[in-house]
Amino acid sequence: MFLDFVFIWRTVEAFIGFPYSLYGSIRLAEQLLKQIDIAVGSADRKTAQIGEVVYIAMSLHLGDDEYHMRVAKQIVDSSSD
Description:
The protein is of the alpha/beta class. It has one domain (2-79). It has two helices and four strands, in the order E-E-H-E-E-H. The strands form two sheets. Strands 1-3 form a two-stranded parallel ribbon. Strands 2-4 form a two-stranded parallel sheet.
């Protein structure tokens, strides 16, 4: 059995928030599937699996404080090596 997940985020910070919220969304889907498998406990042990995962960020923004600027600079520097 495949279950699809849709995660809609109102706003996401692009460099730091996006990777963390994407990872967190996938981990949440995995944890929910484990709970479903435990609750159902089917005799033939067919486990639920992740189908499609849709991630929607209604808006992306860039943090403009010193910390976010350092992260952005590190990303640019490492990609230009």
